[in-house]
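[Q] Does anyone have a clean structure-token version of this?
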Amino acid sequence: MLDVAQTARTRRLRRDLSRGLSRDLVRRLACVWVLSLSLWVSFSAGAAAAICPTFSAGLPTGIVSESGIAEASGLVASRQNTGVLWVHNDSGNSTTLYALSSTGATLASYAPSGGVTNQDWEDLAIGPGPVPGSDSLYVGDIGDNDAIRSSILIYRFEEPSVTGPGSFPLAGGVAIELTYPDGPHDAETLLSDPISGDLFIVTKNLVDGLSGFYRAPFPHAAGAPIELELAASYTFPGNVLQFATTGGDISASGDEILIRAYLRAYLWPRSPGSSLAEALAQPPCLLTLEVEPQGEAIGFAADAGGYFSLSEGASQPLYFYGREPGVPSLSDFGLLALVLGLVATGFFVVRGMGNKGN
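[A] Here you go.
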């Protein structure tokens, strides 16, 4: 009888110990996964602001010798024509859009028809248009040095296919009229958000660097003027050559926002799911630019492997700033958090099984 009672007590003790270990293992695993998910969410929500990509010094890829380009003001990389950059001139010039190679050679030129004028073209953007899955070119007639224009214009064109050299007409342009909610502003920066389709105009401030980011929600209809919304503001630091904004771009994936002044550029990483305004609430990364006579144009490469800059003036070099390797992405951090969670899970399971067998 003593042996039977002893055996029963031993079984109960092992059962209770096993239950305790199981409960303890569950608690440990839960803590591990909560921590892993917290790390992932933390990096996805806010780590972008702390991770600044690095780029090489500007390397001249060639000279823009096109005689029609004397005051390059807008630049953007095509997303359907491989290796093509679109460029236009500032005010007082023709309404021609030039297709250049990444070395600055002229591939073709396109002349809009239908009453399109160049009162003060300042920047060029590419992004979603009225045709799903197709990008449009947006030309910002947004300059207003004296802040007297009652409204401004953005011309939208379906991006043409560059098939060979020559000069071609560009039909089908649509004029989108915009007004500011707080009176006229001078501006030289136009952005198209590839995620939302919204357009943004960044005002230029020669006094204290405070610029407004004014939003025109997608879709954009022609006809009656559309009143812009002030989505965000930022005070660019430094002197007037460092804070007077002259151009910008958003990467094709929407994960980086790039704004330039004459001597400096600013880049905001944008984490998945965040709006442009939320990205701008974080401190930007400061990027150096090559010294240019009057640098106004800037744009990402189509693959975001770097960015280009171009100055006003005849026969100017086209600079490329290549992205340097070694900066982890947000997805890398998320993957690391999950891997750590799996490793810890395996450790506790093995340890729990070992304790249970003892």
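[Q] Thanks! Anything notable?
[A] The chain is about 25% helix and 35% strand.
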